[in-house]
TrEMBL record:
InterPro entries: CheY-like_superfamily, Sig_transdc_resp-reg_C-effctor, Sig_transdc_resp-reg_receiver, Tscrpt_reg_LuxR_C, WalR-like, WH-like_DNA-bd_sf
Species for this entry: Pseudonocardia lutea
Matches recorded under SUPFAM superfamilies: C-terminal effector domain of the bipartite response regulators, CheY-like
Residue span, Response regulatory domain: 4-117
Top-rank lineage group of the source organism: Bacteria
Name of the molecule in the record: Response regulator
Keywords: DNA-binding, Phosphoprotein, Transcription, Transcription regulation
Modified residues (4-aspartylphosphate): D53
Keyword DNA-binding assigned: yes
Amino acid sequence: MGPSIVIVDDHPAIVDGVRSWCARADPEIRVLASGPRVEVALDEPEAEAVVFDLQLAPGAPAFGDLTRLVDAGRRVVVYSQHADSDTALRCLELGAATYLTKAEGPEHLIPALYAVVEDRPYTPPVLGGAMAADRRPGRPVLSEREREVLLAWFESDSKQLVAERFHLSVKTVDTYIGRVRIKYADAGRPATTKAALVARALQDGLIDLAGL
């Protein structure tokens, strides 16, 4: 049985389309609920991911609702009409698992959902372009070991595999990754999720898109 999700979107055609794509996916992705308000996701704690429309009402993007979902421990796939780099990077900084534009469609949304429920990074084209073009200052200095552990974690399915590779405990791996997060936060570029750390590594030249 495939993963389960909730869709937060105020456009019925978009909701119906995502439902249809999920039903045709293999394995099927189960849609537990859908609706135009963020509460529909907060009321479904068993959902493994949330497809979240960033523009739920006229005006500014719903960054506050995104923060509510992230703070509640939800894996959020932002699925938005906004294609600008600043919006995409802001969502990653707030803790979204990944960011897709609605123009990128099922060929990216479905793989993204499979990836995020397994805590794997997924970088669709628009987000990849935003990461590669980001030249904001504030790059922290990582130790060689911090860099090695971080890159190994990107390449692995679990921290346990990283620990085995370097003959470390999982707790020590957590410590190294925690130090990296602190350094980025201190530099004003927080990275609270694995996807956000991947974004930072891309921005800072630690890895490239081909390496992913």
